[in-house]
Automatic annotation (TrEMBL):
<keyword id="KW-0547">Nucleotide-binding</keyword>
<keyword id="KW-0418">Kinase</keyword>
<feature type="transmembrane region" description="Helical">
    <location>
        <begin position="144"/>
        <end position="162"/>
    </location>
</feature>
<dbReference type="InterPro" id="IPR003661">
    <property type="entry name" value="HisK_dim/P_dom"/>
</dbReference>
<keyword id="KW-0902">Two-component regulatory system</keyword>
<keyword id="KW-1003">Cell membrane</keyword>
<dbReference type="GO" id="GO:0005524">
    <property type="term" value="F:ATP binding"/>
</dbReference>
<keyword id="KW-1133">Transmembrane helix</keyword>
<feature type="region of interest" description="Disordered">
    <location>
        <begin position="362"/>
        <end position="381"/>
    </location>
</feature>
<protein>
    <recommendedName>
        <fullName>histidine kinase</fullName>
        <ecNumber>2.7.13.3</ecNumber>
    </recommendedName>
</protein>
<keyword id="KW-0808">Transferase</keyword>
<dbReference type="InterPro" id="IPR036097">
    <property type="entry name" value="HisK_dim/P_sf"/>
</dbReference>
<dbReference type="InterPro" id="IPR005467">
    <property type="entry name" value="His_kinase_dom"/>
</dbReference>
<dbReference type="InterPro" id="IPR003594">
    <property type="entry name" value="HATPase_dom"/>
</dbReference>
<keyword id="KW-0812">Transmembrane</keyword>
<keyword id="KW-0597">Phosphoprotein</keyword>
<dbReference type="GO" id="GO:0005886">
    <property type="term" value="C:plasma membrane"/>
</dbReference>
Amino acid sequence: MRRRLLLLAATTVSLALIAFLVPLSLLVTVLAADRATADALVRAQSLVPVVAQADRAGLELAAEQAGSAGGLPITIFLPDGTPLGAPATVSDAVRLGFTGRSLTAEAAGGREIVVAVGGRPGGTAVVRTFVSQAQLRAGVTRSWLILALVGGGLLAIALAVADRLSRSLTRPIAEVARASHRLAAGELTARAAAGGPPEVVEVATALNHLADRIRVLLAQEREAVADLSHRLRTPLTVLRLEADGLPPGGQAARVSAAVEEMERMVTQVIKEARRSREEAAGSCDAATVVAGRLDHWSMLARDQGRAVGRELAGSPLPVALAEETLATCVDALLENVFAHTPDGVAFDVRLARRDGGGAELVITDQGPGFPHTGLPARGVSAGRSTGLGLDIARRAAERSGGSLDLGTGPDGGARVRMMLGPPRR
């Protein structure tokens, strides 16, 4: 838009300058020629009294002095056609002068001025002077250069004004666009500055109202989900008590395991619903967070006889996730290892730097692995898994500018790789 406004201003001003400067330059050319012609005519007419009365010697002296003073070749033709002064031939204009006519005529290489002088013995004498093309155009080039500079200056001023005006129009529009992109990326606190033309102010205000409304609706939805999850705890507690009352055996173990899985799912839903987008945004040191959570889970691993391998990059290792969010993701991934592999199964945690910033977190175990390597849909069971923890980790990784994928480890077990993006500047 800014480029189009500048192009429009340049085109409009250029057309106006052409319409003004071209006729003016032609007028300057005509005025310069008229000025040179008038000056030559004045000098020729100044000799009329001398030509009417002086003798031949006086005429030669007068013609020579007048020509040298004005820089013009002046010739005096006596009635018999004898030229005095500057050499010249009898042209058609001079012949008309002998008839008593004074005139200005175009000639080869310039302009010829003829003044008829009566009163001399023998007839009419003629004073003739010649103005060359160079003299007719004297000062024209300089005048054209001045006009061109004036036109260029006016065009530059017009473009500067148009650029300033276009910036005042496009800057608020760009601000609205940036705010909309930030909102689309999940930054619900983004707002557009209301400035510029009234129409742009109206659009910015409407966008801000929409963002406020979306934020309120999301908060209400999160509260509703969290409230519903809390309500599920009561029947889950009753179900756990019923499971504890079952006779020992395989059926009791299966029911207890299902209840535990449901409780983990409800806990994760509540945490996810309570955490706002603002809390999810931010940055942290991935090396510190992963090391802290791995130390926490290592105690349970020792109790279950699991060997824990770790290969963690040094601190600092900044990533585009808040500390609490990354800790929740690491807990969800490690909890999957403990929940879906038997006691004594070893696992490894590797944290490395990514080229270009960010981190790569890889967790592998020596268990049976995933039934398939695609990410399970949220809430869809794969074995005893709801897929909720992996879904939370995936969305967090994508918010940071990374990704999460599943695969098979070198020992045939499960492998989860979480790519984390660098903090946004």
